[in-house]
Structure formats: C-alpha cells, structure tokens
Amino acid sequence: MLKEIGYVEVGQPFEGFLLIKSATKGVASNGKPFLTLILQDSSGEIEAKLWEATEEDEKTFTQEQIVKVAGDISQFRGKPQLRIQQIRPSQPTDGVRLQDFLAKAPVEVNQLEERLTEAIFEMENPNIQRIVRYFIKKYEKELFLFPAAVKNHHEYVSGLAHHICSMLNIARDLKHQYDDINQDLLYAGIILHDLGKITELSGPAAPNYTTEGKLLGHISIMAEEIGKAAEELSIEGEEVLLLKHMILSHHSKGEWGSPKPPLIREAEVLHLIDLIDAKMNMMNRALQKTKPGEFTERIFALDNRSFYRPVFEKKD
Amino acid sequence: MLKEIGYVEVGQPFEGFLLIKSATKGVASNGKPFLTLILQDSSGEIEAKLWEATEEDEKTFTQEQIVKVAGDISQFRGKPQLRIQQIRPSQPTDGVRLQDFLAKAPVEVNQLEERLTEAIFEMENPNIQRIVRYFIKKYEKELFLFPAAVKNHHEYVSGLAHHICSMLNIARDLKHQYDDINQDLLYAGIILHDLGKITELSGPAAPNYTTEGKLLGHISIMAEEIGKAAEELSIEGEEVLLLKHMILSHHSKGEWGSPKPPLIREAEVLHLIDLIDAKMNMMNRALQKTKPGEFTERIFALDNRSFYRPVFEKKD
Amino acid sequence: MLKEIGYVEVGQPFEGFLLIKSATKGVASNGKPFLTLILQDSSGEIEAKLWEATEEDEKTFTQEQIVKVAGDISQFRGKPQLRIQQIRPSQPTDGVRLQDFLAKAPVEVNQLEERLTEAIFEMENPNIQRIVRYFIKKYEKELFLFPAAVKNHHEYVSGLAHHICSMLNIARDLKHQYDDINQDLLYAGIILHDLGKITELSGPAAPNYTTEGKLLGHISIMAEEIGKAAEELSIEGEEVLLLKHMILSHHSKGEWGSPKPPLIREAEVLHLIDLIDAKMNMMNRALQKTKPGEFTERIFALDNRSFYRPVFEKKD
Amino acid sequence: MLKEIGYVEVGQPFEGFLLIKSATKGVASNGKPFLTLILQDSSGEIEAKLWEATEEDEKTFTQEQIVKVAGDISQFRGKPQLRIQQIRPSQPTDGVRLQDFLAKAPVEVNQLEERLTEAIFEMENPNIQRIVRYFIKKYEKELFLFPAAVKNHHEYVSGLAHHICSMLNIARDLKHQYDDINQDLLYAGIILHDLGKITELSGPAAPNYTTEGKLLGHISIMAEEIGKAAEELSIEGEEVLLLKHMILSHHSKGEWGSPKPPLIREAEVLHLIDLIDAKMNMMNRALQKTKPGEFTERIFALDNRSFYRPVFEKKD
Amino acid sequence: MLKEIGYVEVGQPFEGFLLIKSATKGVASNGKPFLTLILQDSSGEIEAKLWEATEEDEKTFTQEQIVKVAGDISQFRGKPQLRIQQIRPSQPTDGVRLQDFLAKAPVEVNQLEERLTEAIFEMENPNIQRIVRYFIKKYEKELFLFPAAVKNHHEYVSGLAHHICSMLNIARDLKHQYDDINQDLLYAGIILHDLGKITELSGPAAPNYTTEGKLLGHISIMAEEIGKAAEELSIEGEEVLLLKHMILSHHSKGEWGSPKPPLIREAEVLHLIDLIDAKMNMMNRALQKTKPGEFTERIFALDNRSFYRPVFEKKD
Amino acid sequence: MLKEIGYVEVGQPFEGFLLIKSATKGVASNGKPFLTLILQDSSGEIEAKLWEATEEDEKTFTQEQIVKVAGDISQFRGKPQLRIQQIRPSQPTDGVRLQDFLAKAPVEVNQLEERLTEAIFEMENPNIQRIVRYFIKKYEKELFLFPAAVKNHHEYVSGLAHHICSMLNIARDLKHQYDDINQDLLYAGIILHDLGKITELSGPAAPNYTTEGKLLGHISIMAEEIGKAAEELSIEGEEVLLLKHMILSHHSKGEWGSPKPPLIREAEVLHLIDLIDAKMNMMNRALQKTKPGEFTERIFALDNRSFYRPVFEKKD
C-alpha cells in the first residue's frame, strides 16, 4: 500500500489492501461471468473488474469485505479502473481494520467534542441550553460517527460533528461583526439543524436513506423531535417555536426542502453559514486534488462548475 | 335588507344591517378625515366611505361592530362602493347576531358530523382509527367552526368540515374505481390533512395567521401532532409514519409548501382530491354569480383565469 | 412458457415463445456481429443478445417475428438480460398468434363498448350526442384497439377505450358530488379528448408517431375534426365551440401542449379526471410489481418518483 | 386642433376634436359624480376628467362619440391628463369622421394590396397558391382594416396587412441569403399566420377578444380554417399539413400559445420574421417619441425595457 | 425637531427641518394644483401633500431644498403621510446643512479609512497590492462618500466604504477558518468589487443611474478599469486575469448580472460575503424599527419576506 | 477516398486518408489494450476502434496525425463506427495536408474579405469606422481562420468571417426595410461582436477554451478591447459607449451570458440577426444530410428539435 487509491495514476501498478464498497455480477460478451467491485480506502475509491469470476469468488468478494489486491491502473470511459491480477480476502494476521478504510474528518473527535462543549457552555438562555444538552446526550454516540451527508460535502466519519464545529466558529465571528445576532439561538440552530440525519441515514459507513428518511426527511424528523424534547423537559415558550422554525427553514426554499423560508434573523444566518461551510468543504477538497494552472473535476452540487487553481500562489 | 350586499347593483340604493370587517382612517384632499369601511353580510362584502368622520365616529365604527346603514351603490375603480348616507351601530333591540353576518357552509353542521362519523366507523385498521378519533375529540369544537382557508376556497364558517366531507365522498367513489387504494389511510389523510389550520389561523371569524402559523405552517404543525398523539396512545408502527407522510406531502411540491412529494399512492390521491374539491368550490361560486354568456371575475388561485358560463344550458 | 417474461428472475432459465419487438445489429469486441433483440410477451419485455449472429440470423430474426427461445436470465447494467442459447422462428404448427404477445386492457372489449353506449345514451343535448355518435361510428374499429399513449399509461391494446371508460365512471361520481357540472359536455369531452391519437399514432402494436402526429399533434387534429363533423352534421352553436375548447385545453397548460387553458368548468374537470386516471394507472401497475416494504422503480412521468408499498396492509 | 393629442406637453392648453374611446362614471370625494374619459385622435390618447358630470353628460359622452373639447394638460400620477373646461358633441356641420381619429398604418392600403398580389403571383406551387388566394378572397375586406393585435404592435387600422407586407419583404431578402428556404411555404405562412385574428377580435376600432377568440385562440381557429379550405378546394397532400403546422407553431413555444414548436425550416423562419417585425414596430414608435439622449417609456412587451436614443446621430 | 421623521407615529404632530428629496405637481379633484413632496432627514423619509399650491410654491419647494415644516402625521393607503400646515424654505440663519439630512454609515469615515489601509498593508503579493492602491488613490474622495446601492442595502453616505470594511472583517475571519483561501485575492476582490458604482451612479445624494451605468453596468465598467490600471502600471500576469474574473463573477449568476459564475475559490467566497453583509444590513435595520413580537415590513430584496422579532430576548 | 466519411453508410467498406482528431487508450474485456480514435475529414467524423493496439501503435496514432485507413462501417449504439482492418501514418509522398481535412466555410476567403471591406467603406461615422478598421488590422490573420464557435454553428475554418458576412447582408436588407436603423452602429456591432472569440478559443483547428476564455468570456474580453482601442485612437464620445453596449448585450439575456440586455435599437437588431444566422446555419446543414420525408437528428442547440424535410419540394 505504497500509494493510496485516491492518488494512483493511469499506467501504474497497484498492490495493497482495499475495502469492497459494492460488488455486482455481470456477464461478459464471451458469456463468462465477472464481478464489478468498487474498492476504497480512506483516500478515495476505484472501480475494478474481476474477469471470469467463479461462484466461489461471488461468495467471497462481497460488500464490507477487506481484500488484498494487485493489478494495473488502466482507463475506462475517461475514468481510472483497476484491472485485478491477484485478489484474496484479508486474514486476521493481516492486522487491518474496517475503520482504517473509511474517510474521516481531518480533525480529531476529542477536539470536536471540546468545541461543542464550549459552545453549549457559553449559552445564557436556560431553555435553549437544556434542549441542546438533551440532544447531545441522546445522540452522543452517533453525533461523532455520522457523516453530514451521503455525498457532496462532509461525507465521511465524524462529518456531522466536523460540519457543526466549523459552523460554530463562523457563527462566533459573525456575532462579533453583527452584534444584534442572538448567539444562543444561532448556536443551538447550528448544533441541531442536521441531527435528523441520524434517523434519515442508515449509519456511518456507506450510508443509505432509511424508509423514514425517505418519507419524512431529516428536517421534519428533527422539528418534531424538538417538540417532544421540550415536552419531556417541560419547556414552554417562544424558544421552542423558534428552534423548530430554524430547523424547518434552514434549507431556505421550498424547492430545496424547507417548508418555510427563514423568517427570523438567526434562521437566515444559519442558512448562510451552512451554505458557506458546505461550499468550502467541496471546493477545498476538489482543489487539493488539482494542480496549479488546471481546473477541478466538475462539482455537481456547485452547479456543475469546475474551479481553477491559480498558478501564481506559493505552493507545492 | 331586501337585497344582500353580494347581489346589489351599481346605481341602486341599499339599506340594512352589515358587519364591519375592517375600518381604516384616511384624510381627504380637502383635509378632512374619513373612514374606509369594509362591510359584509353572509353573501359578500363591499367597500364604503364615511366622509367627514368625527372622532366619535372613529371610536364607534370599529372592526366586528354591526351597523345599520343606508346609502347608494356607486362604482369606484371598477368595483362597487357604498356611499353612506346614514349609519348607526346596532342595538340589542335590533335582534341581530354576529354569526348571521358570516358566510357559512351550504350544508348543516349535523350532516357534516354524521358523514365524518360514518367514515371513521368504516375504518378497519385500529391504529388509524384510534388516531383519527383522538383528533376528532381534541378539535370537536373548532373542526365545525373553522374555515378551510383564509381566502380562495371554503373560506367560511364550517368550511374545514365541509371540505373534509366533500373529499370523503370523492374518496369513497375512487375506491370503487381503483380497488387497490387503502381506504383507511386515505380517509384518515383527508380528515387530518388540514387540522393544523386550527393552530395556524386565529379563529373562525376574519381569520389571520398566528405567529406559530407563520413560522411553522399547518403542515409541520399537524405532522408533529400526529407523532405526539401516537405516543400518547402508545401506537407504534408504519401507520404513524404513513399518516405523517401524507400530511407532509399533501401540497405535492416543495414550492407549494410540502417538504416531501407524495411517495405512497394514498398520499398522491389525497393531493388530487384536495385539488379537485378546492377548484370546484372556487369555480362553482364564481360561476353562480355570473350570467350565462359571460365570464367570471379573474380567480387568482386558478392562475388568474376567468371562466365562461355557457348559454346553451337550461338557465336557473 | 411456464413463467411470463415480465416475472422472470435473474439466475433462472427461460424457455418459451416471445415476439421480437425490435432487432439491431452490433459488432462485438472480438469483431464478430451480434443481434440485440427486444423480446416481449403480454407481461413485459426483456433485452436479449444473440452472439455471433449469421447473415441468415439477421434476415430471420426481425421485428414482429414470433420466436421460440431458450436461455438464462443474467443481469446487465442493473437490468435483466436474456442470454440466448437456442432460438428458432415460430411455425404454423406452434399455434401462436401475434395478439397473444401484446399487453391488453384488464377489461374485456365488450364491457368497454357497453359502458360507452350507456354514457352516450344518457346524454340529453342532441347536438352533443350526435357529434359523439359520429366519432364512435367513424373510429369504431380503432377506438377499441389503440393504446392511450406510446408509453407511461394505458399503453396497451384497448388502452384508449379503457382510459375513456374509467374516466366516465369518475365523471359520473363527480356529477353526483357537484351538481352544477354539465354531464353532457363532460362525457363528450372525455370520449373525444384523445381520439386524435388514432391519427397521431401509427397503430395498436408498437406504435410510433406519424408525421402528421409530430407536426400537428392529437390536440389540434381532434379540434379540427370536431369542426368538420359539426359541418357535416349541420350542427351550429355554442356546443361545437365548447367541445373544441375542451379538446384544446385538456392538457391544461401551454408547456404541456394545450394552446388554451381550461376556461369552462367542464374543461377543468376533464383535465383533472384525465390526470387522476393516468396517475392511478401508472402507480397501480408499478406497485403491483413491488413487494411490501419496498419502493417501485422510478416512474419518469410521475416526476421520477419511486413509490413505497406499505407493509401493514393485507398482502395479496 | 393645432397640436395632436399624442404630442401635447404638460402645462399647455388644448382645443380640438377627439374621439371618446371609453367613458366611466365615478364619484368624487365631495360626493359628486364625474366622468373619466379616454380621448383619442390618430396620434395617441389621453385621460380626461369631466368633474360634476350631469345625467345629461353621462348620456351624451359615450364610447365612439366625437367631441370638441377645450382644457389644460396637467400631470396625474406621472402621466398627462386633460382637465376639461369645455366639451360638446360634434355636429354634422363640423365635418369630422370616425376614421380620422383612428391610428392607421403609415403605408397606403393600395400599396399593401399590390405587395400582397405580387407575393402571391410569385408562388410556383399551385396548391399553396390556391389556398392563399382562397383566404385573400374570403377576408378581402377585413384584411386591410384589422389591426395585427389589440395592443403592443401594429395595433392600428390596416395593421394586419402592414405587418404581413413588412414580413414578406424580409422573407424575400432572407430567401436571397439562404437559398434552401422554400419561398412558397414561407410567403404563404406569412400571409396566413394571423388571419385567425379576424375571428379572434371584434373589429378594427377599439378591438376586444370575442368569446370564440378567448376559448379557441387565433392559432387554432386558423389551423382549422386551412383544413376546411383545402377540403373545399379538394386539395390534398403535404402542403396542407405543412401550412397548418406553420400556423400552429408560429408562436414558437407552448407557453407562448403554440401547441407545437416549429419543426420545419420555414416555420422557424416565419417565427423569427414575426418577432423582428413586431419588435421593430414597437421600438421605432417608442423611439420616435423620445428625444436624443433620453430613454423611451418602458415597453412591456419587450421585457419592460426602456430604450436609449443616441445623441450622436443626425437629428430629425 | 424633537423626533426624527423615521420614527414618527400616525396621529402625532411634527415640526422641524427636512430636506426635499423630490417634488411633483398634481391637480386635485377640485381642480386646484397641489405638490407631493418626499421629505427626508437622516433617519428616513415621508410623503407630504401641500394642498392648493401657488406658482410661487412650485418654484420654492424643489428638490434638494431644505424646509422648515409643521403638520400632522396621518395614514394614506397604509403608509404614514405628513399633512403640511406650515412650510417655509430654510434660511442661512437656521444653520442647517445638506449633509445633516442624509443618512450616513454608523461608523466614522476615519475608522473606515484605517480599516482599509490595514487590509492593504497586509497584502503580500505586490501586483495585487499595487492595483488596489491605484484605485484607492483614484477614487479616494468618492469611495468614502458614495452609497453601496441606490436602495435596499448600505444606501447611505459612506455606504460603499462601510460595506467594504464589514466584508473585510468577515474575510479575515473566514481566512482563519479555511486556511487555503488566498487572502490577497479575496481582500482585493472585496475592495474593488463595487467601485464601478462610482461611475454607475450619479453621486452620493439621491443617486440615479448614469447612462453609462445603464448601458454597461458597474460590473463591466470595473472589469475594464482593472485592465487599464494594470496596463498603466505595467503589470502582467495571472493576478490581473483573476481580479477581473472576481469582479465579473461576484453577482454569481447570469440572471443576477454576472457574465461568468465564480470559477475560483476566492470569487465564490467574495460572492458569499457580499450576500451576508447585504442581507445583515437589510435585516438589522428593519428589525431595529420593529417591536418585539411583531414582524418587519416586507423586504423586497429578501424575497419579500417579513421577519419576526422575538419577544424572549432582552429588550433594548 | 471515393466517399467522404460524413456520407458513408453502415455495411459499406471504407478506404482513404483521415485526420486523427483524438486518440484514447482502453482495455478490452479480454484484457488487451485498444485505441479509440476519432477520425475526420472535411465532411464529418467517425469513431474507430483499433483492437489489440501495441505500444508502438499508441505512439504512432496520436492527435493531428493523418492516417491511411481501410475497414468496414458497422453500427455501435445507434451510431456508425469504423472497424479498422489496416492503418498506417501518412507519408510525405502521400501529398496530403492538414487543412484538407478540416471543414471550412462554403465561401472563399477573398469573397469574405471583399464583403467586409465594402461594409467598412460604407460607414459614414469616422469614429466607428476607425475603431472597426483598428480591429480588422489587429486580427487580420485570425479573423479569416477562426470558427465562430466550438460547436453548433459555423464551427469550421473561416466560420467567424462567414458568420459576420452573412449577418452584414441581412443587416443591409433590414436597413432598407426599417430606415431608422443606424447602419454604422449595426455594421460595426456585427463585425466586432464575436472577435473576443479569437482570445477565448485556442485556435482554428480542434479549438478549446483558453483559461482567459473560461474566466472572462469573449463578451467581456471584447468590451474591454474596444475601450482600449478607443483610448489608443484617442476617440471619445457616445459611439464608444454604444459599441461596448452592443458587445455586452448581444446574447440578449443574463442567463445566456450578457450582463446587460439590449437597450438600443441596433443592439436588439444585432441580437436578432445573430440568432437568425446561427439557426439557419444549423438547420440547413442538418437538413442537407436528411432525405425528403424524414426528420433530422436532434439538434441540441435548437431545443433538441428534429426538423422535417418535406417531400413535395423539387428534390436535389
């Protein structure tokens, strides 16, 4: 595993351990079965073909299995493809673990925990603070494991907490600039806004949408959970209404999934900060893979744009 | 009160009791104050000017006051206007009551109650039936008082229940035609779909949007209430999820206020029946005021169309 | 032909008679020619590959030929594919007929005829009734053969008549609910609205758009035909104008092909009933192929949605 | 009538004959009735107020009456208004005629007739030529009287013929440039494309939409008329289909009223020429009323733009 | 001038100095001329009517004249209106100055200058720094006088510099959070992005669009100016291209006036910061005029939304 | 080279010289490398597969190499494909030149030069004429080499000049019809409108977008160049402003790349003529490849329409 799979180049050989993200059977034009595998490590993923696959192969090389593989990187329909020469399942003696093959946030979990604790500590309104603590406790495990999305941005282990903490930092700075902002509301909105994804998605590794996620969506799920939490905590008053509103409106427009547009200042700010952090995450990761003087791949969630990396900067 | 205010014609005199729907002060070009009153009875409303209004007048002629008024119907900017010659507040001896001046559903409340009871009685799924009963009980008073909307369709006393009962009838017929429809789900969706309006709107007479209504909307309010009801009734299972989904999706599209599009058959049918009954209500009332061979006023909620009333039909 | 082609599963063998819907020649990566066949019976269709096809094969296996075929069902790009092991054209002694391989309406033709006759019999306006009779006579053959569309809904033999009869039933029920509806106009609009498809499409089996269909469209074609019919029958008056308007407006919006939006009540109702029956047809058929607890394939004409089939219902 | 009404300036007096385009009764804030008159001559129109109007005035000053009027031009809500000091109906001895007060095309009718004759004479295809001749004959009177639209462009007497002839000239020039164009088709499309307006509109002076116009529209009306004409003339063949298609598609898009987009070259060219001539007509007339260095009024039908008239050109 | 005009309430008297923003003549229904004045001080503006205006009044009360006025605040079409009882032009002895009646930024000019100097000082890239200095020098006077827009946000004296400095602060904070951002590019983009408005608008008081502004727009004006500046300074290279791109793309979309969408990271960030500062400016000012528990007026540039001011916060 | 590659038919053999437009390596399902070549001559292009390609082949058959090739035309995914049997690079003795394999305008360069000279000669305004001459001189070489676009219309050698000259002819004719048009402005706008493409695109053969082209676009590039040219020529005045405006607005709408819509008559006309010539170019070329009675391929840039070629015309 000299080179990670996200950084190989066409024409090079590859040898190392990879995780099978998905496995699909096909039949080649010569009538023989083959397997199409998506293989990944924490740096990225690649499509691979295992030609003339036996029934044994089909049973062995399945989703979430770690394999040791050797082959060459060729090009297929403009994308790199790994042509497998040797492949075997990993064995206990190999000493490889599932979590080593998943992408994760570039910040340590304990740092994320600290940042979150600090933000809650700063809250002055007891109602808001209690509701937020309730959810931190309820989801203490998932919060630091789940991604913030299935794809596009922060789609890695701890992505949800990473996204929240970046947003808290921006919120703190904007509060300095625009003093009228209610910091408690904004911090609470940021911490809670995407917790519905814990119900909407199936889990931290290779997440899918649950049936509840598809039929209700994380926005409605979380708005309702706030109502229930307030009831359990016997909290009444405008704060509950406003927190629900912030969750409902944080996608800003009906066609983007929000049943109400932001109608309080902090809801509008929440939406803007969410936008910034998601966009920065997408742009930065795409640009880091791009050489100066070249354009990134098209980024679907950024209106399918390719971004240019300038030459004039000092850099690698 | 020989003729109701919805049926007067320009050039005619008018004398009778009317309810003040709103009163606004203005200053005329000669510098003297006047009052612009919107006056209504159960047949419609008219704008009226009370020129050279005294301070006494201002205090007397306020919203929700019933008045006895005499004057002429003239035309102003293409719409009829009542020019007031005499006006006085109603007195106990006049024997007039607020409810007599509000438009109401063309069906009696007890008939609506019966239809609703019948529909619930037909339900076979006990979970669905219990949830529906819970809400009928909770809102037994408001359900037969509230309008179905602030304007456009069924915007009269008992409008909500009238709308529900019409929809139940259509649902029963469609079930005959398309047997795969789950009648329990569809009936429940129809009965519950707009109950959030009881929280969203301020009341049955001259309704406005409440703050909760503006910040959450009747769709999110009701989806959450179903969750709470199920919890109180200790009901778990797919039925709760599906009922919430039907509420969330019954406006069909994000830009029309639904955070999810219909993703089960009965949700799609609920949306279609809602559409039919709202449109029929608007068209029928506009056409009843239109002479054969003429076009109705433009109906904003029907893409601003004017509808033609054919000549060839038997006249009524 | 133990199992119909619409119900086979990947990994199973298949043997039976099928109709060739289309045949296309290709060249494999080994340089040898092959045939891609779309094979169908009344339950559905499947793609099949005939590798190393001879010139003889090319001439034999052409569109509308019935074949006896044996092979295995594999998966290709996520869709089932039939890998042909044996294939031969059908022979007179096989006793198979073209019509047995086409999908058809789930209602018998004579029932459709009866329903139509009944609706026309109920008409009271002689002008409307005569025009409708004229077209029933003119298209008595095609009406019960043509599909209602090339794809999406009622795209099977007798689909057009099946669609009309379902719509008539809904119209009858709505007339009970909303008595102001003019039943003659609505029934006539339903019966005539899609008859232009008989000119727009090439025929009942594997229909394509004709040049006239592409350049004029079924809406304009039928509006003009009504004009001509009225002239032949010496009918003058508003009914002709209104029937033409109903045809022109039944797609509701300019961007959906209607040069005028509905401007009479019955035209609006016609559009709504058309919408309901088309949507129910699509949803019901997709859900019948879906197991409880799963989602249907995406349905393009329903905004590309997948519909969920609930678990809690009684299974069938 | 020293100055025409389209050219008066605020602050100036006015005296002369004008035609009453519309008359509406109102009641002033002092309770006295007044008349709002729209007065016009061939150069433009102006709003006028007749304060303290008697019942006699109401009966005298009605639509299509010519009046002699004296007053001042003031400004009201940013637009000029004529404050009437003296007004009387015209008398036979005044020697004024209705047609003198209507705007008309800047080209003589006989020139328009000649141009049309020339274009038809050049046609080589006998089917197309016969159909065009049929309509020229059928509408020989209206064709040279009707406007091309109710407002926006060519909305004056002979506007329809003026629009057709300008378009024929552009078509002749484009044929030189792009020889593949079929001139017969294009000329015929131009001559016929708006003839449906003769049925859609009520007449040459102060035109309104007829019921037939509202329910069918000039596009569908004319497409059907071509079908009937061909039948009467016993013409069959592709030319009829193509001419109908050109009529149906000349508004280019569904949302602009065309049930089909242009699908033959000449239909696309017809649409483009129509666009050019309509736009030039609107721009030129607006700019002629604008001083160099200033912007025109906003032109609604040109996306509400104001156009700048350059200073550097030779002034006229 | 006890109370500023932006804070008066309907029913109260007003007396004090105000600036005439615009003056328009009208004619009342009694035939007498009147003046509609828009009067302003630094807190806001109000419409006022001067009834029975003499010719002398017309000449005296013109745009940019300061007047002393006494009257009452009434309501007209839902907006406050000042009914003038006494009015006279200001005199030298009144000691009032034009600039005292214009709204200005809530930050002192020298603070804005300092912030700008600091940002330029931090720049490391000499090319970028020189170009920015060039423009600061070129527009040293206008930069601290001009508003950032004609209406909506920062539409006050020094608004442009105020907007720039707020944006610089946010940029500094985002650079801390997302280290990959090129600070020089982003700072330069912020400082230059709206300088084209100095050419697009007529001046700091009551600004209009210039002809150049209307025909080219501030975006194209400024992109060209950067090109010229680079040429004068003999600067070549990627920095010039990138700065032009940032100007061209800072409105983000074609339909919002940008001929190119952001295609470098710093251009995207520039757009987002611009959005935040404009929105915060609009929301904060509207909310400051709103009582807790109420909604602001509709803000057109924020999708016509009304924002709610919560009750639970500490009041100010 | 009996038949050009744009006119071959499936099933036929092909032998002749072709230019390699692009070459991509792939790996077949049997594990052996192959080359996908796009081969072109001046009539069109075709995809070709070179199976079992050696390393030698990879180095030999690269972009812009001319090759002699023999093989058969087969069909692949509905498009013709050339199956290579023999291939070799061209040799000096073959006497073939690069330019012979590029599509070029159907008009000779010297004719285009003459037309351009004539138009400039007719100009009366010396400022406009000098600016146009400046650019003709500056780009005298590229102007007659570059295409007008990368794809869709006039995408061949001299396409830019061909497009300009066609547009000049239409402009001349429109000037006859609408005399108010300022011919100097319109001619200048036509000649200059797309010259920015010379910077935006990489060159006349197989053009790509340059980085400058991607970040600024030809519209902004050219508007700036006009400013610089005017400065060099010491020309001031409205003409410069208007020419810049015409460049900026010639795509008509923000979403089509114009930062300003046309706000002078000649800018609107420029846009319309551009539209006509681009559309005619696309339609004519597609129809020339289509048999009478058939439809063209879908043309993406014409809203994905297929155009019908009538049967009734004289065949060519």
Walkthrough of the structure:
The structure is a homohexamer of 316-residue chains. In chain A, α3 (126-138) runs parallel beside α5 and α8 runs antiparallel to α9 (238-249). Chain A has helices at 55-60, 109-121, 126-138, 159-177, 183-192, 197-200, 211-215, 217-232, 238-249, 265-288; strands at 13-27, 33-41, 44-50, 66-76, 79-89. With 316 residues, the first copy, chain A, is of the alpha+beta class. The first copy, chain A, is elongated, with a radius of gyration of 23 Å. At the B-E interface, β1 and α7 of B face β4 of E.
Q: Characterize the main sheet of chain A.
A: 5 strands, mixed, barrel
- What assembly state would you assign to the polypeptide chains in this entry? homohexamer
Number of DSSP E strands of chain A: 5
Spatial strand order of the main sheet of chain A:
1-2-3-5-4
Question: Largest interface here, residues on each chain?
Answer: A-E, 44 and 44 residues
Work out the helix count of chain A: 10
By secondary-structure content and strand pairing, the structural class of chain A works out as: alpha+beta
Distance between the termini of chain A: 23 Å
Summarize this, please?
Chains A, B, C, D, E, F: InterPro entries: HD/PDEase_dom, HD_domain, NA-bd_OB-fold, NA-bd_OB_tRNA, YhaM_exoribonuc/phosphodiest. Chain A is an alpha+beta fold and 316 residues long.
